[in-house]
Amino acid sequence: PIPAKCLLTSVRVPWYLAKLSSVGSISEEETCEKLKGLIQRQVQMCKRNLEVMDSVRRGAQLAIEECQYQFRNRRWNCSTLDSLPVFGKVVTQGTREAAFVYAISSAGVAFAVTRACSSGELEKCGCDRTVHGVSPQGFQWSGCSDNIAYGVAFSQSFVDVRERSKGASSSRALMNLHNNEAGRKAILTHMRVECKCHGVSGSCEVKTCWRAVPPFRQVGHALKEKFDGATEVEPRRVGSSRALVPRNAQFKPHTDEDLVYLEPSPDFCEQDIRSGVLGTRGRTCNKTSKAIDGCELLCCGRGFHTAQVELAERCSCKFHWCCFVKCRQCQRLVELHTCR
Ligand SMILES: *[C@@H]1O[C@H](CO)[C@@H](O)[C@H](O)[C@H]1NC(C)=O
Ligand SMILES: *[C@@H]1O[C@H](CO)[C@@H](O)[C@H](O)[C@H]1NC(C)=O
């Protein structure tokens, strides 16, 4: 495995978005100048699209929360983001974890911008009105579908510009661009139709529908599956340009929707604060699971402590007319296992 130090740096790169997520409102052009970690082209975009920047910030927040949710039971739990030393060095390693972080970030930005468009918060965009009229299935399109095209285009220009400015031929830039796009594809392939019924007492005489983005949880879940099946790639000259191809020729080529990575990951077992790896000491594990959340794997074979803890729960809940529920507090003893 590669040293954790390299890994961390590569995972940290898109967290300029994380920094963005923690600033207050971005309402003046000067704020764009002060945002840490943005490159010059992004500062320009920020100034020209001030009203969109709050959605970018919200998208970054969504991405971080979703990453932590999806990885809550794994050794790397996506929490190496805050309070870590900043490495100035640009590293070329790109791991699976970095692939996921890039994908979920660009998806988060596309998602939040799209939502802001449909909710009427932004002057530059609104609903997608190209889907209208009566559908072949006989329902009426509402004429206000989620404008995913705008969200995706914004994410492409704002998020991808970092890679394009590096010269899109470095392996790492190719990897990031691919995974950024895979993140946005995860929204596009899960778009759905939502409807509302109108008519006497809930009958569905008239149905109006619109195209909507999926819940972000579903996007996170889809990308987590792509993470598990990610393809290790290497750069190869194809004609006059470079492309990433599977390292193992026996694997089927990846699609636009798959995640790709260049380097294997470290095992994340031991703490190395200077590198920002927290290790798994103290993590809660599942004694009976054979998967990565099980004590054996999560604790890297070091064993675990068991403690009895009291859990406060609501119990004996009764419904009172009308309308509230009254419960008692009960204490329950449970065993809690934590890694040594
Ligand atoms: C991730 O794991 C570390 C310990 O390794 C723990 O301190 C932290 O709270 C965890 N973060 C989340 C979001 O679960
Ligand atoms: C622990 O793992 C077992 C087996 O995978 C599972 O059935 C159980 O729900 C898990 N317990 C918790 C608290 O997650």
From TrEMBL:
SMART domains: WNT1. Pfam families: wnt (PF00110). GO terms for molecular function: cytokine activity; frizzled binding; transcription corepressor activity. Keywords: Developmental protein, Disulfide bond, Extracellular matrix, Glycoprotein, Lipoprotein, Secreted, Signal, Wnt signaling pathway. The keyword Lipoprotein applies. One of its GO terms (cellular component) is cytoplasm. This is Protein Wnt. It is found in: Secreted, Extracellular space, Extracellular matrix. It comes from the Eukaryota. One of its GO terms (biological process) is fibroblast growth factor receptor signaling pathway. Ligand for members of the frizzled family of seven transmembrane receptors. Belongs to the Wnt family.
